[in-house]
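Below sits our specimen:

——
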Amino acid sequence: MYSTMMSCNETPPDAALNASVHVSCSNHTGLPTPLRILLAIIMLGMIAVGFLGNAIVCLIVYQKPAMRSAINLLLATLAFSDIMLSLFCMPFTAVTILTVDWNFGAPFCRISAMLYWFFVLEGVSILLIISVDRFLIIVQRQDKLNPQRAKIMIAFSWAFSFCISFPSVVGWTSVEVPSRAPQCVLGFTEFPADRAYAVMLIVAIFFIPFSIMLYSYLCILKTVRRNTVRIHNHAESVCLNQGSRLGLVGLQKARPVTVDMSFKTRAFNTILILFVGFSFCWLPHTVFSLMSVFNRQFYYSPSFYVTSTCVLWLSYLKSVFNPVIYCWRIKKFREACLEFLPKTYKVFPHVPGRMKRRIQPSTIYVCSEHQSAV
């Protein structure tokens, strides 16, 4: 069941034709006018940053053939889903926060609910694919995801997300339109079918992806830690072997072999940060949705509107969070972003960073019995 905010005196235009649409009104504690204006302005800024930042990510992958690796295609798809969320969902929520009334009609309530879950579920599916890919590479030592397979997985994720979110727009679940939230959200229902669909939606969006990603990252952390110990032990043995060849004097002057591990762990750390951001933005929304569906007292409480506004704002923050992480953590994306800036904005000259000598991965992996693909 979905709910969105409408005036108490407003009647949905298709209420008489669609028995699944209901109108109920109750008093709720609204936000003060200055706070509503501030939240609307912040959300408009989030829309701009989310759209422009994710658009740059998509343009980089589209315009640069060298960037069309499997992982970058997945990141571009994640950025595209965030763009769609910024364009087709966030503006209507911002307007409703500002005006306190849902002015877009009951039919669009169902459409906006479907679009919201559709784009969110697509982004979560991409994060899940990336996590499983990292798990296979680092833990199972199987690099099976090439660009062609990545495109197939992307197409499958779009189809899966559409199938899960589509019932909310065709009337397979009842839609209630009370003045309870600034956007269509899961609302209280006593019908088993509606509750089953709500639980399925929440499980597909959060619980299953979170569990798989958490397990994958715990296994990856364990593997990286074990390999790091092996690498350092191997480096020390190399130093001792060099010293033994040079004699006692050479042993005293033998320079230790330093290994730069950043090239092995930086990509994983970036994906881990995205996972933490996903958990931070979506855990409150998941708890909120479950309480809305199963707890009548919570759903009809005066503070429900304020709570729904906060958790919706936090869930939208993820679309702004991702491109910032790309530019911060991925050097190629950061350099490509600077190319999009006009030369007049490039005030400071480019200063090359300190070069670090990195040994070949094949040299590192001899410390283990089997070759690793970490």
About this structure: Residues 192-253 form the longest helix (62 residues). Residues 4-27, 248-254, 256-261, 347-374 have pLDDT under 50 and may be disordered. The CA atoms of residues 56 and 337 lie 7 Å apart. Strands lie at 2-3, 21-22, 175-176, 185-186.
